[in-house]
Design a protein that fits this description.
Length: 305
């Protein structure tokens, strides 16, 4: 359970805490706001890469307080992370509250210059990114949550750290499934991602091996940190081969939030450095660089098969 101090800190950071048990939250994405303000001229790289509408994307988590890793590069505050929930809110309640929360957060954009058309459309989101905070596959009703959003006409993006392959084997799969891969060895994983359980690296590898059998669009996300994990591209290539994802996103770590207290500003790679590393990955695998977004410092590699 979140303390009053933690709740105030999250609210100050523009989180909208939802549900009776307060383990879920919504936060307006920067690009959602930019798209509404610009009438679609400034959009998220996910719109550019995958065709979703930035202004109609709802960013949320059912697991605000749950995570089994303490990644140094995570912009979240680790202090409110736990390993279990005392009380669990049902998925339908979370879905309903998340849409209401998005609308309340959007009302604040009415007082600044914006596109009325885009703001009106944003009030009826049709894309959900289950990725805001924590590890969403630790929510025991994640399958029902995805189902519920789908029934409301949402496309669903789920981002996981990949340490719960047993969950991915049995859930309703999202429209797009991300697995974060930010270490190329167990030694790096322990230093950079600080797992709380001994078997997390093994579980991640089980997920990579499971990936080809999952019938949905799949992405491996590489969060790249200069002088920390931008080395031995051949080791990443071996891990990615197991998963055979449809896409690889190579993205720069950004010096924001809690991560700025754990890493140095100098660890943030430039877009050109991300692109150079992506080229090395591309040369080792049958993937080609198909797109990029300089403002987000991200490069997209697409499977040639």
């Amino acid at each position: 359970m979140l303390s009053e101090k933690q709740l105030k800190q999250l609210q100050k950071a523009s989180y909208k805490i939802i549900g009776k048990s307060k383990h879920s939250a919504v936060k307006l994405c920067l690009w959602c706001k930019k798209s509404i303000k610009s009438g679609g001229e400034n959009v998220c790289y996910k719109q550019k890469f995958y065709g979703i509408n930035s202004h109609r994307c709802l960013q949320m988590t059912p697991c605000l307080t749950l995570c089994n890793l303490r990644c140094n590069y995570c912009w979240r505050d680790h202090s409110y992370f736990n390993q279990r929930l005392e009380n669990i809110d049902p998925p339908e309640e979370i879905i309903e509250e998340s849409i209401k929360a998005q609308r309340k957060l959007l009302t604040g954009l009415g007082g600044v210059e914006h596109s009325e058309k885009f703001l009106k459309e944003a009030m009826n989101p049709n894309q959900v990114a289950i990725s805001l905070d924590g590890e969403p596959t630790m929510y025991p009703f994640i399958s029902e949550l995805i189902d519920g959003y789908k029934k409301r006409g949402f496309t669903t993006f789920l981002v996981t750290n990949g340490t719960f392959p047993e969950v991915l084997k049995k859930i309703t799969l999202p429209y797009q499934l991300y697995v974060s891969l930010s270490s190329n060895s167990e030694e790096m994983y322990k230093k950079l991602q600080n797992p709380l359980l001994k078997n997390c690296w093994r579980k991640l590898n089980e997920t990579l091996e499971l990936f080809p059998s999952l019938k949905t669009r799949k992405v491996i996300r590489l969060t790249l940190i200069k002088d920390i994990n931008m080395n031995h591209p051949e080791k990443y290539a071996e891990l990615i081969k197991k998963a055979s994802p449809d896409f690889i996103e190579a993205k720069a770590w950004m010096c924001i939030g809690g991560s700025s207290l754990r890493l140095k500003y100098e660890n943030m790679p430039s877009h050109d450095e991300v692109k150079e590393f992506s080229k090395k990955i591309s040369d080792l695998l049958d993937y080609k660089i198909s797109d990029e977004s300089k403002p987000s410092r991200v490069v997209l590699l697409k499977n040639n098969h």
